[in-house]
Amino acid sequence: MSEFDYDLFVIGGGSGGVRAARISAGYGAKVAIAEEYRLGGTCVIRGCVPKKLLVYASRFRDDFEDAAGFGWSLSEPKFDWPTLIANKDAEITRLEGLYRQGLERAGVTILQARAELADAHTVTVQPGNRRITAKTILVATGGRPVVPQVPGAGHAITSNEAFHLDELPKSILIVGGGYIAVEFAGIFSGLGVDTTLLYRGPKILRGFDEELRDHLTEELFKRRIDVVCNAEIASIDKGWTHTKVTLKDGSTVETGKVMYATGRSPNTKGLGLEAASVKLGEKGEIIVDPYSRSSVENIYAVGDVTDRVNLTPVAIREGHAFADTVFGNKPTAVNHDLVPTAVFSTPEIGTVGLPEAVARERYPKLDVYKARFKPLKHTLSGRDERMFMKLLVDGDSGKVVGCHILGDDAAEIVQMAAIAMRLGATKADFDATMALHPSAAEELVTMREKWVPPAAVPAARAQKK
Ligand SMILES: Cc1cc2nc3c(=O)[nH]c(=O)nc-3n(C[C@H](O)[C@H](O)[C@H](O)COP(=O)(O)OP(=O)(O)OC[C@H]3O[C@@H](n4cnc5c(N)ncnc54)[C@H](O)[C@@H]3O)c2cc1C
Q1: 20 lines ligand 1 (CB under 6 A)
Q2: Which of 462, 463, 443 is nearest to 454 (CA)?
Q3: Over the stretch 334-355, which tens digit does the pLDDT of each residue have?
Q4: Does residue 35 line the site of ligand 1, with CB under 6 A?
Q5: 139 CA distance to ligand 1 centroid (A)?
Q6: For this structure, is 437 an active site residue?
Q7: Residue minimizing CA distance to atom 23 of ligand 1
Q8: How far apart are alpha carbons 209 and 202 in whole angstroms?
């Protein structure tokens, strides 16, 4: 008999933890998982899934407006927030049930509990103060929203609460320039809320390709989302009807609600990691090796708590690789290159590979292909919206090293482009691929002319134009 209660104890029943628990149990390990809130974690309960449902809801406004150009006439559409939230909640509960079923079928013991490390092989679970031992411990506790220390910040919400508002405010001030801030700006604006996006940096979506950032900002303005950069909140005062926000430059804004989407930090506080001597990084993230092993031999960590690439498919892949490595006798390191990602703004962004600025540093000979055009649909809808596509190609090998798209279905298109890029596709491979017509995606295989920076345009050519 083993000297431990379990072979594996997983702390956190989110994307990474659930996958790791299920696959490890499949390899014959005796597994327990503790989840303090709801199985499914951030992605299912208050992240990707509910967010995408709200994004869908917010885009019907465009559909109703666009339909007129195609001959449809509609009576005034009405929107009911409580119906949307109730339907969204029912779907989340269904998904949570599927997660539970999957774990139960695999023979995993599920504890509705908070778990903390007492030492390298022992966890304490609450309620009950039970001590449980395990040969291997996996920390998959995810992250939590960070709210700056500003007087009155307690009056603001984060994405966690945004999914459960009793009613829609008339106006909202969203603070932050990352993808969650931008996505919620699109959601609230699409649902009819007067929306301001306030960001302390010079431009939203730091880390994304510059042109995506510029073109999206332009599209957000067209949608009457007020994007205010280089601005920070000094204090928040809650009145009877409105919230008064004072900015650091002394100006004030009145709004119905303030939402902070100012980043997330790894959930490592109060976990007892110090008791087990697990090393943490500057942001409190668990430092791990390519096999997700921490500084302590039998303690591993996957997902957002390690702050590598904070996305659901990455957490799942890391959880799976952990199980293969530790219980499946197949040491597997996760490759974090070429992770496709989306910003579900409206219009949306899909991107994979390097932004142009980074690609230029890495590849001395970089060829850029780009197109900006009015999508066919908007020739009749009349919507003033442009799609943008950009391919970055290493001029020496011909390999496509970056693919950036802004516009309808960008996420769907980029998922497919990521397969080609993973296989090492060159620009010549893209060009040899038959176009699918009429589609927006065909632009990716029909861009023939390298982009030439304006300064490099020969004078004669410039004059002819
Ligand atoms: C608003 C929002 C939108 C997002 N949209 C996307 C998207 O579109 N696409 C995408 O890929 N990613 C998206 N993400 C990111 C994605 O949700 C995370 O990358 C993913 O959930 C990370 O999985 P995880 O397993 O590391 O952690 P989580 O899913 O956060 O799971 C951690 C779990 O651990 C539990 N827990 C924490 N501490 C303890 C403890 N001591 N004891 C027991 N349980 C504990 C928590 O309750 C939680 O359920 C979004 C995130 C947010 C917040």
Answers
A1: no
A2: 462
A3: 999 999 999 999 999 999 999 9
A4: yes
A5: 12
A6: yes
A7: 15
A8: 14
